[in-house]
């Protein structure tokens, strides 16, 4: 991700196995780096539990394989190797691309995995232990199973390494930064990068000459201010808990809450972490679900807390977007992406309506049409600032970065 324009496509047909390891899951896909075409994709879930399984989609057919109890990443990757060989998909594989959540300050761009890179990821994993551990497991299992194939690490944080100190430092004792790396890193970098490049194409501008705010709204949500193709600020922080209201994460809260919960309600650190990461957000407010679709349906049916959850989600998002006018000053387009951003016309309209002072408006029909993977401008022709829906494709960015790094070998 060292360039700011959309990645250059490699010349020959080249397939990259993209792996995204979570603590108990493994998302995988083989992507043709030339065009983003997905050859096979799937998800191994409940790894390490009594009932792990792999489901995958190939040539339009969906299949589920049950793994034995307690099998985890290594076994899932082994099964994946078998699958790939059974379908003769290994012939065109040129690399394995790993999505790595935290690259700390070590990584400003994607890297070919070697001992130094592993040490860097290991180092950064103190900042995101669950994810870091899973990412390292994924890399070592893939190295064992795909011996001879180059492994490339693509970092969720790398795109945001262009942020200035003014944007990334917390107002905490400075040595927490210098001695322990406590600062804002931001996540969803591959997504923000991708949609900025695609939006520039859509509206016929050079990304280097554009100012965008992209809202990646999925189970995790973040906003990024992108000036001339570079991230200048973003709402996630040291961890993905910061910023916006999310499915189960609170986003920003008063840090004084920690003292209140410990002294008044006897919470310990683990309970607080659980509360803020798993029991808050849309789920916490609605007391119904973390799933935006469910919340929207309930709100329409008159569920008051579901309606309130949506209102808070949109208000906080609109406020964050408005705040990014400080580093940007002018805005060419507001971009919606992620499961919610790409599909929820309700949320897009609610947010845009609150941002009319930025020259944004919402064309009702265009807003309704931009769903199910359709990109499009959803503001009217007369709007001073464009609103855009742009489906993200993080896997393609990972495949492209891997292909471009392999090309240099
Ligand atoms: P992601 O993490 O990007 O897969 O996004 C997951 C979120 O997208 C969940 O909250 C889903 O409810 C939401 N989502 C997916 N489709 C729709 C839809 N048609 N309307 C509203 N939200 C949706």
From TrEMBL:
<dbReference type="InterPro" id="IPR000890">
    <property type="entry name" value="Aliphatic_acid_kin_short-chain"/>
</dbReference>
<feature type="binding site">
    <location>
        <position position="99"/>
    </location>
    <ligand>
        <name>substrate</name>
    </ligand>
</feature>
<dbReference type="InterPro" id="IPR004372">
    <property type="entry name" value="Ac/propionate_kinase"/>
</dbReference>
<keyword id="KW-0067">ATP-binding</keyword>
<comment type="pathway">
    <text>Metabolic intermediate biosynthesis; acetyl-CoA biosynthesis; acetyl-CoA from acetate: step 1/2.</text>
</comment>
<feature type="binding site">
    <location>
        <begin position="216"/>
        <end position="220"/>
    </location>
    <ligand>
        <name>ATP</name>
    </ligand>
</feature>
<feature type="site" description="Transition state stabilizer">
    <location>
        <position position="249"/>
    </location>
</feature>
<dbReference type="Pfam" id="PF00871">
    <property type="entry name" value="Acetate_kinase"/>
</dbReference>
<dbReference type="GO" id="GO:0005524">
    <property type="term" value="F:ATP binding"/>
</dbReference>
<comment type="function">
    <text>Catalyzes the formation of acetyl phosphate from acetate and ATP. Can also catalyze the reverse reaction.</text>
</comment>
<dbReference type="GO" id="GO:0000287">
    <property type="term" value="F:magnesium ion binding"/>
</dbReference>
<dbReference type="GO" id="GO:0006085">
    <property type="term" value="P:acetyl-CoA biosynthetic process"/>
</dbReference>
<keyword id="KW-0808">Transferase</keyword>
<keyword id="KW-0418">Kinase</keyword>
<feature type="binding site">
    <location>
        <begin position="291"/>
        <end position="293"/>
    </location>
    <ligand>
        <name>ATP</name>
    </ligand>
</feature>
<dbReference type="GO" id="GO:0005829">
    <property type="term" value="C:cytosol"/>
</dbReference>
<keyword id="KW-0460">Magnesium</keyword>
<feature type="binding site">
    <location>
        <begin position="339"/>
        <end position="343"/>
    </location>
    <ligand>
        <name>ATP</name>
    </ligand>
</feature>
<feature type="active site" description="Proton donor/acceptor">
    <location>
        <position position="156"/>
    </location>
</feature>
<feature type="binding site">
    <location>
        <position position="20"/>
    </location>
    <ligand>
        <name>Mg(2+)</name>
    </ligand>
</feature>
<feature type="site" description="Transition state stabilizer">
    <location>
        <position position="188"/>
    </location>
</feature>
<dbReference type="InterPro" id="IPR043129">
    <property type="entry name" value="ATPase_NBD"/>
</dbReference>
<feature type="binding site">
    <location>
        <position position="27"/>
    </location>
    <ligand>
        <name>ATP</name>
    </ligand>
</feature>
<keyword id="KW-0963">Cytoplasm</keyword>
<feature type="binding site">
    <location>
        <position position="394"/>
    </location>
    <ligand>
        <name>Mg(2+)</name>
    </ligand>
</feature>
<comment type="similarity">
    <text>Belongs to the acetokinase family.</text>
</comment>
<keyword id="KW-0547">Nucleotide-binding</keyword>
<dbReference type="GO" id="GO:0008776">
    <property type="term" value="F:acetate kinase activity"/>
</dbReference>
<dbReference type="GO" id="GO:0006083">
    <property type="term" value="P:acetate metabolic process"/>
</dbReference>
<keyword id="KW-0479">Metal-binding</keyword>
<protein>
    <recommendedName>
        <fullName>Acetate kinase</fullName>
        <ecNumber>2.7.2.1</ecNumber>
    </recommendedName>
</protein>
<comment type="subunit">
    <text>Homodimer.</text>
</comment>
<dbReference type="InterPro" id="IPR023865">
    <property type="entry name" value="Aliphatic_acid_kinase_CS"/>
</dbReference>
């Amino acid at each position: 991700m060292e360039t700011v324009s959309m990645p250059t496509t490699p010349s020959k047909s080249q397939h990259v196995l993209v792996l995204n390891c979570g603590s108990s899951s493994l998302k995988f896909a083989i992507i043709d780096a030339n065009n983003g075409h997905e050859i096979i994709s799937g998800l191994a879930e409940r790894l390490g539990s009594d009932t792990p399984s792999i489901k995958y989609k190939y040539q339009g057919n969906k299949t589920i394989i049950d793994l034995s109890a307690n099998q985890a990443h290594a076994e899932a990757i082994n099964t994946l190797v078998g699958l790939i060989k059974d379908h003769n998909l290994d012939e065109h594989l040129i690399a394995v691309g790993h999505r790595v959540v935290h690259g700390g300050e070590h990584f400003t761009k994607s890297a070919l995995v070697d001992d130094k890179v592993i040490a860097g990821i290991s180092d950064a994993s103190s900042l995101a232990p669950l994810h870091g551990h899973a990412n390292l497991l994924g890399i070592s299992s893939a190295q064992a199973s795909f011996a001879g194939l180059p492994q490339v690490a693509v970092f969720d944080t790398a795109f945001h390494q262009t942020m200035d100190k003014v944007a990334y430092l917390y107002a905490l004792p400075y040595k927490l930064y210098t001695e322990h790396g406590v600062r804002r890193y931001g996540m969803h970098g591959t997504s923000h990068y991708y949609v900025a490049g695609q939006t520039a194409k859509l509206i016929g501008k050079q990304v280097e000459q554009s100012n965008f705010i992209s809202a990646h709204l999925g189970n995790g949500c973040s906003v990024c201010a992108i000036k001339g193709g570079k991230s200048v600020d973003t709402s996630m922080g040291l961890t993905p808990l910061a910023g916006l209201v999310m499915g189960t994460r609170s986003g920003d809260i008063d840090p004084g809450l920690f003292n209140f919960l410990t002294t008044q309600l006897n919470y310990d650190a683990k309970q607080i972490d659980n509360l803020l990461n798993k029991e808050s957000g849309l789920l916490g407010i609605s007391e119904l679900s973390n799933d935006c679709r469910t919340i929207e349906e309930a709100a329409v049916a008159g569920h008051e807390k579901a309606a309130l959850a949506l209102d808070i989600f949109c208000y906080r998002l609109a406020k964050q977007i408005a705040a990014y006018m400080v580093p940007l000053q002018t805005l060419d387009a507001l971009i919606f992406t992620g499961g919610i951003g790409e599909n929820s016309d309700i949320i897009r309209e609610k947010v845009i309506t609150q941002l009319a002072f930025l020259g944004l408006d919402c064309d009702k029909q265009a807003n309704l049409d931009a769903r199910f993977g359709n990109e499009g401008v959803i503001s009217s022709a007369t709007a001073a600032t464009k609103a855009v829906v742009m489906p993200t494709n993080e896997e393609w960015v990972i495949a492209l970065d891997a292909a471009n790094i392999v090309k240099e070998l």
